[in-house]
Write a structure and sequence with these properties.
mainly beta
Length: 95
Amino acid sequence: MNAITDEKRIWSRLNIDVPGRLEHPEGDSPVRCLDFSSHGVRLISPFPMQVGEFAKLAVHATQDEITDFHAKIQCQRCEPMDGEWIIGAHVIDIQ
């Protein structure tokens, strides 16, 4: 018997909790990357993003301040949570 779920994603996400940096036209900000897949990412940020806005995400998965990879992202949703912002974004490209 299959479990019933509200999960609608086709692609599995890797649950992680690593630091990163969001690089966008208004300036850079530190973020925490909570999960990641080849098609999406969920971040905690001290600053909001506008839905539809593009940014570059630098992920520091192995060591702080060492960028393991960059991803171009587009914000799909941004919601306040305890003085910070939860950002859900579509991954456009991984470098």
